[in-house]
């Protein structure tokens, strides 16, 4: 089966892989604590001392519930950046020696010269962003958007020519900012889903489910464990935000307002 067809098959299965885990974590808390859900679905502020105590406990429980969801989105994002850097290396062909992000990737089975693997990972990132509970997502997205600007600033600082790598970086930012992007597979004929398609897609589903269960176990065993975002590369000089925002904005001018809204002070203190 072609990589294009496999991208379609993986796309159809992504909601099974990423869609249920994060939502069920959030809903489990609210089912156990129905009084904590406000009219808009958020935790209501405290109104009395006794309520404040219960609310504080509920907020603490909610944070515990949200950590695996935040970690799952961070992990999918980190995998996407790792795959983008592999693509970048192939596209550069040794013309620029650019630094790599410090992102551990124990599973190297995805490494290939076929671009569709990165395209599939972009779909994974979009699906995970959608399925992540609002509270977890809202706390995390600004950080990941700024890290994407970090990443792009390295290419601008090294005067790299604009290439397909930059288009993919802009798509990552667009997914984080807008919730979706225009995927290449949308412009290809949709294949018929066969038994072979399902059989070749199943390893992707099982890998995702394994990651979900492993994250759940880690956070269940250590209640004080907090989610962590990946260590993404950044330019070494000044004006990191300006460099990265300019790079991404050239590829997608519709993102410029969001890019300009990023805070320079954030980078000075990281």
Automatic annotation (TrEMBL):
<feature type="region of interest" description="Disordered">
    <location>
        <begin position="25"/>
        <end position="67"/>
    </location>
</feature>
<feature type="region of interest" description="Disordered">
    <location>
        <begin position="89"/>
        <end position="111"/>
    </location>
</feature>
<feature type="region of interest" description="Disordered">
    <location>
        <begin position="244"/>
        <end position="270"/>
    </location>
</feature>
<feature type="compositionally biased region" description="Acidic residues">
    <location>
        <begin position="261"/>
        <end position="270"/>
    </location>
</feature>
<feature type="compositionally biased region" description="Low complexity">
    <location>
        <begin position="49"/>
        <end position="67"/>
    </location>
</feature>
<protein>
    <submittedName>
        <fullName>Uncharacterized protein</fullName>
    </submittedName>
</protein>
